[in-house]
Design goal:
This protein is α+β, with helices and mostly antiparallel strands. The chain has five helices and 18 strands. It starts with 11 loop residues before the first strand and ends with a strand.
């Protein structure tokens, strides 16, 4: 194919114990999928979750065991962490039934939905889209992917985040308002899902600001941990 200029390399994630990489198609995110987080953001805690997206190249990663450097973004003084379970699809489709949804999962990882919280708050007050608060460069650090067959019971796993060795977020994936199969089914009604799609499934309570020099460690039981250094 004759391009006007060379295209950027495809965004991808490392795979645990493999030299293969997982190519990323799209990144879908589920908002307020844990009742305690919805409450800390000012809602009752049981509103239906909603969806937004991030660019595929917002994902940054490093091989398992290595730290991911995260540049502190421009235009914010209030950069927040949100630890999340990430679902990676190996196949897709439209109008997927809940009963069939998990057949499309290739693997899982732990990720961070980094958020320019001050920009998000300002835009919410104005009733404007807040893509700039969620979809900026390097806004989705992720750990190495673990194939589904090796990941254990991710639907009843502990999920937590430490900042400089201090626990900030802690919860159970079983506390999701929508579980993994329900999320996949609902997304497939709005978009035709594809192999390579990533789904960030929401965060438990405890979101807070980070500063340059902070060290973040995110974990979901059974998955490779994610280490991030904020620059």
């Amino acid at each position: 194919m004759n391009f006007v200029f060379p295209p950027q390399p495809s965004a991808s994630l490392p795979v645990v114990a493999s030299d293969q990489r997982f190519p990323i198609h799209r990144v879908y995110c589920v908002g307020r999928n844990y009742a305690d987080h919805a409450q800390e953001m000012g809602d009752t805690g049981r509103e239906p979750p909603f969806f937004f997206t991030k660019p595929a190249d917002a994902v940054i990663s490093a091989p398992a065991g290595q730290s991911v450097p995260l540049p502190y973004p421009s235009l914010t003084q209030d950069l927040h962490h949100e630890v999340e379970l990430v679902v990676a699809l190996g196949s897709g489709g439209k109008n997927i039934a809940v009963a069939d949804a998990l057949q499309h999962v290739w693997g899982y990882a732990v990720g961070l939905d980094m958020t320019r919280r001050d920009l998000q708050a300002q835009l919410k007050k104005l009733g404007r889209p807040w893509c700039i608060a969620k979809g900026f460069d390097a806004s989705a650090p992720m750990g190495a992917l673990t194939p589904a067959a090796q990941a254990g019971d991710v639907q009843h796993a502990a999920i937590d985040l430490q900042v400089n060795g201090q626990l900030r977020q802690s919860g159970k994936t079983s506390a999701m308002i929508w579980n993994i199969a329900e999320i996949i089914a609902e997304l497939s009604c709005a978009w035709e899902l594809q192999a390579g799609d990533l789904i960030m499934t929401g965060t438990p309570a405890g979101v807070a600001a980070v500063q340059r020099g902070d060290r973040l460690q995110a974990q979901v039981t059974g998955l490779a941990p994610l280490q991030v250094n904020v620059l």
